TrEMBL record, chains A, B:
Lineage per the UniProt record: Bacteria, Bacillati, Actinomycetota, Actinomycetes, Mycobacteriales
Taxonomy, superkingdom: Bacteria
Coiled-coil blocks: none
Family: Belongs to the CinA family.
Residue span(s) of domain MoaB/Mog: 8-185
Name of one Pfam family that matches: MoCF_biosynth
Gene3D superfamilies: CinA-like, MoaB/Mog-like domain
Organism of origin: Mycobacterium spongiae
Protein name in UniProt: CinA-like protein
Amino acid sequence: MSVSARAGIVVTGTEVLTGRIQDRNGPWIADRLLELGVDLAHITICRDRPADIEAQLRFLADQRVDLIVTTGGLGPTADDMTVEVVARFFGRELILDVELEDRIAAILKSLMRRNPVFDLGNFDSIRAANRKQAMIPAGSQVIDPVGTAPGLVVAGTPVVMVLPGPPRELQPMWHKAIQTSAAQEAIAGRTTYRQETIRMFGLPESGLAETLRAAEQAIPGFDALEITTCLRRGEIEMVTRYEPDAAEVYTQLTRQLRDRHGRQVFSEDGSRVDDLVAQLLGGRRIATAESCTAGMLAARLTDRPGSSDYMAGGVVAYSNEAKAHLLGVDEALIETHGAVSEPVADAMAAGALRRFDADTAVAITGIAGPGGGTADKPVGTVCFTVLLSGNAPASQSLRLPGNRSDIRERSTTVAMHLLRRALSDSPA
Amino acid sequence: MSVSARAGIVVTGTEVLTGRIQDRNGPWIADRLLELGVDLAHITICRDRPADIEAQLRFLADQRVDLIVTTGGLGPTADDMTVEVVARFFGRELILDVELEDRIAAILKSLMRRNPVFDLGNFDSIRAANRKQAMIPAGSQVIDPVGTAPGLVVAGTPVVMVLPGPPRELQPMWHKAIQTSAAQEAIAGRTTYRQETIRMFGLPESGLAETLRAAEQAIPGFDALEITTCLRRGEIEMVTRYEPDAAEVYTQLTRQLRDRHGRQVFSEDGSRVDDLVAQLLGGRRIATAESCTAGMLAARLTDRPGSSDYMAGGVVAYSNEAKAHLLGVDEALIETHGAVSEPVADAMAAGALRRFDADTAVAITGIAGPGGGTADKPVGTVCFTVLLSGNAPASQSLRLPGNRSDIRERSTTVAMHLLRRALSDSPA
């Protein structure tokens, strides 16, 4: 694949490196670069430690990236050193930008007026602390602060874009920074890509691997496709990136996938099972009856705005009494078959349909563990029923892998897919 | 702080680099290294692209880390190449571990037997695909797979630990890998630290910042403490790391925190509100009634093993009909005060207590948005009631910030804290 503009991201901050704070900037910038057709090669994370930051800048320069974006380390406190390190990296001196210092001072004044926590008395000392933020490497272009920290675009090889850590500051500043002549030159060689996502359910990753190997043999120009597959909660996500002239190659691949795994492929346009279920539920009223997932399915069905159009409600029937009293499950049924059984799942679904006056119901009952497993019903055994009014209940029992939370998580995903299949098979 | 064992983490995976999947392994391993007193210098992320992975390994070796941990790229698909690259990095050849191949085959067989949703089609081709996973660099130590991918510890300078991407596989395998002689030698120089976590709720981060500034002035030897604070869902987590001889300094800090923020500090031993609530619920029976959170609180209360001892169940009363029919909320009450009001929250809690024959109930009703807000009840308005049988209901209305999912998430956390306070104030 011809790639002629490469970038790297340097994320600084002890709280990010140590995982106290999840980095949201790397992924966000990665998306922007992807949209631009710039190849992101590396993201590197380190503490606010000058030697480490400089080492990462040199590493990325050695990797011949055209653009480096740094995030974080622009605050007024002594441990924020990114600008100083970038200046040293280029061998340039730091110069006080007086006009910028005034802009920062103005921002601070209004901040302090709004924020009682600051003590308006020692404004000069605060301003002094912030003078540091007005010291910039010679010949760099300033990006106006959204908070108090200005950003920088430093021309050179590679071009270095310096942005603050807080996402709400970084994001608007990125859009200005990428428009600067220096940044535009850096990414001039970018290629436009297409990116397509196919989602599959109920297919082992190795089964897909086999199909891809076969496709590699059968389809000329196959390596024009950059394919990544990712297994998540029983779903496989396959993302393919290619240049426009390889579109026909991709079409052939999708054809082979459909031939081999038609029933497992549930989305070719990137839409998720949640999107599909939401569409299929249009004009319907759904109710849930959950035991081991204890509300996770109901919560997932109401993730999106407007879900009140189809979501009636649900019962978390964690105890057998609750199954009996709230869902009207016959206690004899529980005694005969056990609480984790398809007959009980059927009865739970029927109860939910009735109690919520719904036309669609899903029931889940299972053993999430670690306790409660038996020889014939080990931990991970989960029974599902999807009931559409006027149809016979569709039940299925599975044994799901993983620990308690994996099993609960995976159960909600399985339920979403059983619901999707039932709704697509039945007339609206 | 004297540190004599350094580590780096290489996270591979296009889906992680491009932000389609959030990396959970880097932060998790960072925590483990922190506990061990190993200094984590760099986390680097790249695609499953051999040249990039090898460049990152060389970079970390040049930075003289003692241990490199790689995550991901161990799957059967052709785009998983970490082991191959690690072998090249050390200049060693890949050898088929026949006995390991059989173990992987056995795992696959049982996986497929357990999953009717998986099409059982040609097992041999699948086994062939997985042969790749049994190819290991000469002289490396195998860590048994939790999924299908084995891990490796490769002795050398630095020592390289190769672990799979899925957290539920990586985490147990880490604990074995770190015990290997090679890994132990790599981290032999580590310093032992203490790490303490204090959690606060209902305190603005700037308030804590003030207190820390004051403590820095007042407490001698304060900079022996490495403090990182993190605001999450209305809770502040403060993690302090120090060498044993600074224990007295830390004690003084905790004293000042208690003096200033006694009511907000709810945990000094790292335990979470979920742990405290679980303890306080011992011997009780709890039921939930949820509208906008739609089961998220019930799901959270049942996160942990053994929760069936106290969890009776819950109702997701998303529609007004459900509030009336399943929880017996008087429809006149809804008409008079609106579905999002303290009287309705009280009635929902009372209904849940009655329906599930419980002694403890929590109700949540609110406007998660983006629609449904009004002038006097804007999006983010959420009403909570905690009801302990024999006590008057404790109700509270809040206006929570953020988008739909922030508001739902934050609401469950607020409910957990209201529950904690109610249960701690009342005699068991």
